[in-house]
Design goal:
alpha/beta, five-stranded mixed β-sheet, about 35% helix
Length: about 120
């Protein structure tokens, strides 16, 4: 199976989602795109303590409203769906792996070529 490429429009859309979460007062500890090999898909991964304190349903509901607004009430619509996002707690194994960079090829920041990378990091 061929690996899909994370393209600039997804990186920019992810940035807009994160800005929207900040305006919604959702505490985000870290954010990155992670390539899930078994699914063959990149997912915007959002690390938030609110997943543990308020529950994942609360965070996904907030994201759902935000994604609707960004897709329908914006001059430059965002094309990310809720199934392209994963929310995890700061104690998740995935976040620990990304923080430690254990066996990962990591791209950081704008202008990086993410072909062949496992993670694109906004911040950790």
């Amino acid at each position: 199976m061929y690996r899909t490429i994370l393209v600039d429009k997804h990186i920019e859309a992810g940035r807009r989602v994160l800005e929207g979460l900040a305006q919604s007062n959702i505490d985000v500890t870290a954010a990155f795109w992670f390539y899930f090999e078994e699914e063959g898909q990149w997912r915007l991964t959002i690390v938030s303590p609110e997943v543990a304190t308020k529950g994942p349903k609360f965070v996904y509901t907030t994201l759902s409203v935000l994604l609707y607004d960004l897709a329908h009430n914006s001059p430059n619509p965002v094309e990310i769906t809720l199934d392209q996002i994963r929310v995890v707690t700061p104690s998740s194994l995935l976040y620990e792996q990304v923080k430690s960079r254990s066996g990962l090829r990591i791209a950081r920041g704008p202008g990086r070529d993410v072909i062949g990378e496992d993670v694109y990091v906004y911040w950790i």
